[in-house]
Each structure stands twice: as C-alpha cells, then as structure tokens.
Amino acid sequence: MTLHANFRAGYVAIIGRPNVGKSTLLNKLVQQKISITSKKAQTTRFRINGILTDEQTQFVFVDTPGFQTHYTSGLNAAMNRVVTQSMREVNVILFVIEAMCLDQRDIAVLRILPANVPIILVVNKIDKLADKNQLLPFLSEVAQVVKFSDIIPVSAMYKIQLAELLDTIRDYLPVSEPLYDKDEITDRSERFLAGEFIREKLFRLVGDEIPYSTSVVIDQFKLENHLHKVYATILVDKPNQKAVIIGKKGEKLKQIASQARKDMELLFGGKVYLEVWVKVKSGWADSESVLRNLGYE
Ligand code: GDP
Ligand code: MG
Prior knowledge:
Blueprint: E1 8-15, H1 22-30, E2 47-53, E3 57-63, H2 67-70, H3 77-88, E4 92-98, H4 104-112, E5 119-124, H5 135-145, E6 150-153, H6 162-171, H7 185-205, E7 215-224, E8 227-236, H8 239-246, H9 251-268, E9 272-280
Parallel strand pairs: 1-3, 1-4, 4-5, 5-6, 8-9
Antiparallel strand pairs: 2-3, 7-8
Bound molecules: guanosine-5'-diphosphate and magnesium ion.
C-alpha cells in the first residue's frame, strides 16, 4: 500500500440506542468481522471494534466503555463522566438513530457528549420509509434540536449512502500515519481477543473471588492446517486463587476454557485447540498443567 500524502487516521465512536443498527453499520462499513488491537492497545482506553483502511484513510471504530449497558438505566453523574471522558478522545462520534425516531432518550445522551467532538448524525434504515418525502422535514426538525456537524441518512443494511458517510467521517480525521499496521491486524487481533475471551469467562465464572488484576497471557497462538492452537496462562497472585480457578477436579477451569473456546471458534470461523494453565506469579510455585482441553477431536 502506498501512503497517500494526505493520509488520515483516527478514532470513530458509534453510539446510539439498542436496535438502531450500530452493529449492522459497523459490519457493513468494515466488511470483516474481526476486532483488532495492536501496538497501541495498552495505551488506548477504547475497545476497538473494527478497522477500515483504504488508500487515503484509516478509520478505527471503537466502543466506548460503559456506554451501551447503562444506556437505558438512567444516566447518573459518574456514568456521565466516564462517557464524556472516553468520548473526548475520539475524533468523531457517529450518533445513530432510526429514521423518523428521535426521542427523549436520544436527546438525554446527546446532552452528555463532549461539546468539542464533532457529532455526525447517522439517520439509519431509510429503506424502511414508505414515503421518502417524510425524510427532509424530519432531518430539518432534528437539526433544530441539536447542532450536529453533519447529518447523513443511510441504510446500513442495504449499503445506501455508506460511501458518503465515510467521506464525511474522513473530513473529521486528522492527517496522520496509520495507527495500526494493516498487515498485522488479523493475527494480533485474534491473539488479543483469545486472551480477552478467557478473561471474560474467568470473571463471569469465578468473579468475586479473584482480583480484577488477574491477567491472561497468550503463550502461543498459531494456525496449523486450519486449526487454531492457543496456549494460554492465567496468572494469579496466590495459590488459593489458583485453586479457586481450577475448581473441584478441574471443573471450573474446564468450563472457562470450553466457553472461551466456543467464542474463539465463532470469531475465527474454525476449530480451536485451547490449552489453559494457571500459574502463581511468584516463582516458587512451579507451573503445572491443569488442563488439556482438546477442542479438536
Ligand atoms: P444495534 O443494537 O444498534 O447494534 O442494532 P443492530 O445492528 O443489531 O440492528 C438491529 C436490527 O435492525 C436488526 O434486525 C438489523 O437487521 C436491523 N437493521 C439494521 N440496519 C438496518 C437498515 O438499514 N434497514 C433495515 N430495514 N433494518 C436494519
Ligand atoms: Mg449491536
């Protein structure tokens, strides 16, 4: 890929109420199902959902932590701060609504968005409009409620106006080198996500009994004849934590690993062989194989 002289790159948040079509929009824009991480993973607070890189632009679509889940349950002050702070670091926000629907809940969210980040209103599902003439009055009405940087009607599902949307987003991204290396994306992301899946299951299934700082290290990640082989270690501080994670006869760890493996198989689109070990960080407790979870027979 030759870099365009005016190459631009930046972070784009996609927010909006459930069911307005955020996931569909992201999938159609990125056209690949991977999420990614890379050299910047440690420094960014965002969870990256997908990246689109073309000759001129790298669009990094991110999730803003805490936003989705708390959306409907009232927005308290602490929550507002988290949202506002994380949003402040993106270059542009896509605020997605469904055509003909902008209600009080949308407006409540709009109010807590940082004032200095451009917001593009994406009016989705225009394919559903029986009468296309409704759209213009709706758009001008909406424009009076909130001052958006731009308003773009689209249909994510039918890919209507997505090129226009990308062009518009591009205008708000700074001139920059790519933030993520195109060639490294797939591998690194899958490896990273493998660790995230294990961590997620660990906290879901063991939760309260282990500190949040407990880490998961992917020791090896390789693809052999369409089989993903993942070797991971859960690092804990104390032997009793190790015992809790392993569980009676290894049952707990088996559960963690098998649920994580299923997620990986969905994401990677193929069979996964996963081995998870638990080690106590302090060196004296020697490593021990606690599970060989054969995901592939
Ligand atoms: P999210 O909760 O905001 O992520 O919404 P989803 O992307 O999961 O979409 C919610 C529903 O709306 C799904 O059934 C989608 O198929 C549908 N949907 C999304 N975009 C469009 C669109 O442009 N047109 C129509 N007709 N349906 C859409
Ligand atoms: Mg979604």
